[in-house]
Each structure stands twice: as structure tokens, then as C-alpha cells.
């Protein structure tokens, strides 16, 4: 209720957005266009906001310019078919799973998947089986074990990369999945930039996945809510994909968003031409100078220098990048110092005017893109070295040995993990069951009707149909007491959870 609010104090969302843009706070977060950063002309969105008028085709039945744009996107990424998405990766995930379920009721899900996956499982009344991440990734062995155990699985869904940038062995997982005659869907939302430099992991498009979903607004210069669904094999029924895309996307798709996708991909296409030319001249796909004409060569050179400089930190440390972790995600780990991820996040935001993407108990994630400003990395390095200089390490562990262990979780309370809750019933049955609200602290042993998660990244700690474990209650209680926003509870304050009677 807002009866007591003084209307003279009201500031519209539009005015807030304009004011924020003028504050000078640097965006180390998505979207990847970084609010233009001087790279593109500012166009009035109202001037290009149209509907399906003559000459501008129809996203749900493309025969003209949109069909041609999607064909060019498929050629750029090297896919069998590519579809424009204006409802983000969420729309693509919903459509892909709905189209691939087939006649089987079971689905194998990586337990660190985004909540959108669980929502489509509920909508389609599927029976979920889970594979749990080991040191951030899904192992081929765990996928094979699950497929051997359950013969009603219609498709497999993996998230790669994770929010922290870790990638699973998609090639081997794809081989295993295809042995069982089913399809592999990879939520590669944070990997739309992978094909554009050897500095990044290889895209699942080239590793055997049947469908790959890219959130191009996350790491490429495109507007929020823009994404791509790539069909990468002939195992997929394109009629079913198109049918469900029409179900899960607006019947009045935004031409502003579609235009943004097209503009973004045209920029990438032109930059790759410059990148290839520079590679021929320089003899390598990666450049260590700022003198080539390719933005991506300059971008990767700046990233390399940034990692080299951040390696000098004494107390904080940065996760290393490589073939199995995306360099574009700069992950600042705090588990060896007296501050946690939230405190580090707040220091960067309020002292140094930098807006990180997200925080967890033990780290802060900063997202970079090809459109980051030239001085952004220098500002970041200077800020982190100043923060680092005022901290003391609380453990004597060697950082190189710690990083090589494959996990950034080495605190005494081990809070950064996903607890294993027993699956008792399917998500749809639990969501629609007779229920009651109880105090969350006393919910251990009950079967949840709510989906409880931290956002970002939107990965559920509790899924409807699971028996809530005491471990899970304790973990989320720690998060709440530290000031983290636990979402999905029965009430806005996060005190109550809805459980089955």
C-alpha cells in the first residue's frame, strides 16, 4: 500500500535511469553494450518502435527481412538454424525443453540450472532427475550414471558456463547423451562471445550439443532481453521449436529488440573480418598489443594485462582463466580475508563507483565485454590493489595450491554450495498441492511447495517437491543473516515457506 507516500517525492523509473546514467558509476555488469561506452550512435527507441507493418516481416512466421537476419545469424555462428529471441534465454529454454520432451516424462537436469528450467519442468509436468556439479562442473560420468538408472529421460539440460565462468566437458557429455538416442540442450547464456576469440572456451555449438541458447545481451553489445536459440543438429524437430517459440514469446515482438540483435551481430561480423585480417598479418588469433583494427584483439589484450596485474594481489585473489573457465568473468575471491563477497561488492560500489554483476558469500563477479572503456581495467586494478592493501589474510594456505584444488570454497563454514535435498514428488504436483505456510527455520523435513533461490544467479536451493534438509535451512539462514536476499519464500520478508500438508 502507498497511501502515505508523498507524491511530490515520487521519482519515476525513467528519471531514475537517466540519473543513474549520469552518475559515472562504471558498469562491470550486463548488458554487454555497457550503455554504449562511446561505441555506437544513440538512437531514439521510439523512432524505430513499430509493429508488423508492410516490409518488416513477422517473427513468428518469417518470410522476409527477419528470415534473412536469422539465416545470417546461423551462418555467423555456424549452426543448422538460429532463431531470434526477444524474451531472453528464458523464452529459449522454455521452447527448447518443451519441443524436446517427446513422449517421455523424465528429464535430466544439472542441479545448478537456472530457475527457468525448473519452471518449464513444472509447466510440462515432467519428472526431474538431477546431476550435481562437482567442483563447479557436471561430469560425464554422472550423466552416464543417471541415464543408465532412468529409462524415461527424454532430454538432458546442462548449464555451461556457470555464472563464475566454469565450463563442463560438453563434448563427452554429448557423446554419452546421443548413445541413448536423446538430445542435449546447453544453456550457454553467458557464452555468446566464446566463438570470437581463442582466449575463451570453445562454444557448445562446436562440441556436439543439439540446442544451444545464448543470451547475447549478457556478454555482447545488445539490449537486455535479446537472445538466440541455435539448433545444431538434425535431431531437432524445427516445427516443434517454432511452435513453442510462438507460445513462449510475445505475439507483438519488439522491433527495437530485434533491431538490436541485428545491429549487434553485424558489429561482430565486421569485427571478425578485422580480427581475421589482423591474425593473418600478426600470425596469431590473439594479439598482445593495442594496435590491430579488431576490437576483440584489443579486448583480449586488455583482459590478459588485467589478469597479470591482479595476480599481484596479496590477500584477495582472482580465479584463473583457461580452456575450462571464461576469462571475461573476473571473479574476485574473498574467502582468505576478513571481508565477505557482499562487503567487497559494497566497497567497489560505494567507494570506487563500480557496479559489479553479483556477489556471493565468498566472491564478487565482474562482467567484462568487448565494449568496456579503455580505462575501466586500470580503474579496477587500482581499486582492488587499494582494497587488498588494507586487508589481512586469515589463512596461511598457498593461493596457487588453493586455486589448483578446483574450488573457490575454502572457508571454515563452507557456505558456498548447493545442499542435496531429497526429491519426493514432481514440481507440478508440489506447486499445486494442498499447502500451509510455516516458519522457515522450522521447515526441515517438510516437502516444499516454493522455489527458493538467491538472485542472481537464480539457481534454486530448494525446488518444489523436495524434502527440505536441515543443512539447507542452516545454509540459507546464514545467507539471510549476512544480508543476502533469499527469494521465493511465501512472504516478502523471507520468514515463511509454503510446504505440503
Walk me through this protein's architecture.
- The structure is a single chain.
- This protein is an alpha/beta fold and 501 residues long.
- The strands form 6 sheets. The protein has a 7-stranded mixed sheet with strand order 2-8-7-6-5-3-4, sandwiched between helices. It has a 4-stranded antiparallel sheet with strand order 9-10-13-12.
- Helix 4 links the parallel strand 3 and strand 4.
- Helix 3 crosses helix 8.
- It is globular, with a radius of gyration of 23 Å.
- The two termini are 31 Å apart.
- 45% of the residues are buried.
> Which CATH architecture of the largest domain would you pick?
3-Layer(aba) Sandwich
CATH-assigned fold name of the largest domain:
Aspartate Aminotransferase, domain 2
**What is the CATH superfamily of the largest domain?**
Type I PLP-dependent aspartate aminotransferase-like (Major domain)
Number of strands: 20
Q: Report how far apart the termini are.
A: 31 Å
Tell me, what's the shape? globular
Q: What Rg is obtained from the alpha carbons, in whole angstroms?
A: 23 Å
Strand content: 15-25%
Main pleated-sheet profile: 7 strands, mixed
Q: Class by helix and strand content? A: alpha/beta
Number of domains: 3
Helix tally equals: 15
Strand order of the largest sheet: 2-8-7-6-5-3-4
Spans of 5+ residues with little confidence (pLDDT < 50)? 283-291, 396-416
- As a percent range, the share of helical residues equals 25-40%
Query: What is the class of the largest domain in the CATH system?
Result: Alpha Beta
Mean pLDDT: 90
